[in-house]
Structure formats: structure tokens, C-alpha cells
Amino acid sequence: MSEDLVDWTGGEEAIVFQTCTACGHVQYFHRAFCAACGTGGPREERASGRGTVYAASLVCRAATPVTRAHVPYNILLVDCAEGFRMMAHGENGLSIGDAVTASFRPFAGKLVPYFTKEP
Description:
single chain; 8 strands
């Protein structure tokens, strides 16, 4: 396995995905093995941050007191250019099919991916 790359879950402004060296399966969140074929040591790569909105949900009711300051906020499912789908925050008003690009913003004390519409 390659050296582990650090992503937004470790405080870096990056999205890291894995590709299986045996079957080519692309997966997102870090695992020690391929979820499709079970081969150990998938290769880690940094994502481009580009994708397409698959689904969007506007949150208008805070789940916790710390998230109350962010209401309303948009939660997205994004089909990333590299072939994996991820959940992330995004600007309000995004629609299914919109081309988006990731940046990173603070949310409830943590740095999170934040998608905006491509011009």
C-alpha cells in the first residue's frame, strides 16, 4: 500500500479516494481492502474536487445546538469525477445535475468539503 494521504478528515484541504490495484474498483472512505474483491492495499489518490450533484437536501432544522448557527445548510450527494460518490456540504440552490467544484469551509468546528456550482 502507498503512503497514507491525509484528507479533510485529518484537517487537510483534500479529498482522498482509493482504487483497487487488482480489480480497479474505486471507493471512498479509507479501507485496508477493496470492498469489491477483498484485495488488500488499495492505492490512495487525491481527488480533483470536481463532480456532479446526484441529490440535494436543504437542512432547515438543526440537529444539534452547534449546527444551529449554520441553518439552513445544504447536504449533497456528489458523483465525483474519479468515479465515487460522497456526501458533503454545498451552497444553497444547487440542483441535481449541476456541475460542482469542492473547496473547504468550517462547519461546527471542523473543516468540511463544500461544493459550489461551476461557472
